[in-house]
Amino acid sequence: MSAVCSAEPPFVLTGGSPAGGTYSGNGVSFGFFNPALAGNGSFALTYSYTNGLGCTATDTSSITVNASPIVTLGTFNNVCVNAAACALTGGTPVGGSYSGPGVVASTFRPSLAGAGNHYIYYTFTTAQGCASTDSSAITVYALPTVSLPTFPSTCRNTPAFLLSGGLPSGGSYSGPGVSSNIFNPNVTGTGTHVIIYSYTDSLGCSASTANTITVNAPPSVAFGPLAPACLNTTPFTLSGGSPSGGNYNGPGVSANQFNAAVAGTGQQTLSYTYTDSNSCSNTATGSIFVNSLPSVSFASLSDRCVIAVPLSLSGGCPD
Prior knowledge:
This protein is mainly beta. Helices cover 5% and strands 44% of the residues. Strands 1-7-6-3 form a four-stranded mixed beta sheet. Strands 9-16-15-12 form a four-stranded mixed beta sheet, with no helix packed on it. The chain has a four-stranded mixed beta sheet with strand order 17-23-22-19.
């Protein structure tokens, strides 16, 4: 008989002739040979046959039981599906081979295995051809689903603001002009910029997505100096701001009209604000000087007769 390995399951003995006899020997029971029961080594097995006249004859044959290796495989750390391929270790005796989902040339590739629970197998074969296998589980975690909506456009002169909208919440933003999740349009300048949102879940798996934000230039606004006005000048509509269509503000200004009496005397600073089609605004300033009124007096005149000769008026002050 050929050699067998100790870890092989019991098998039916055959080959005895004439058929119908019985087998006996170390590890033999009811015509089955059990390598594990026999133990390691070479054994003589006997085949006995009795014919119809009651005459019995026997023959023997040897069988060798080779030891199957004791194989162990340590535990694996769970990984994320986008983790880099890693060399498999931990199988003993060294020199065996690994197999299972995602295993290529003794390396484990999480992306190839896919998310889920998998078993990695380690097989070692002795010089006598006896093999044993042990297995260990590894869990591949799916990446979190991350989303980032489109950002509304903004203006270059908009104050820095906190980015939001990334889901699940609690992640971080990065990209041009971004610091501590705050976006500064003045740093990026005009144009379309890519903002990245990254999120790490409780299992340590990270994913990211990106969207764009457009930064528009503010309009170029001008507001020239205004001609001086007197304190009692009739309220008038302001003009001179460019482009037209904006709004004026400042002392004495209401509904784009300037009231010198409300503003008061002296140099007054007014502003002109214009908002373009991108909802971007800019402001320019101009000045107007409000002159005070002169102090005027006129003394009383004596009564005159209707036939009196004309007289030169006097008494007004200042002259």
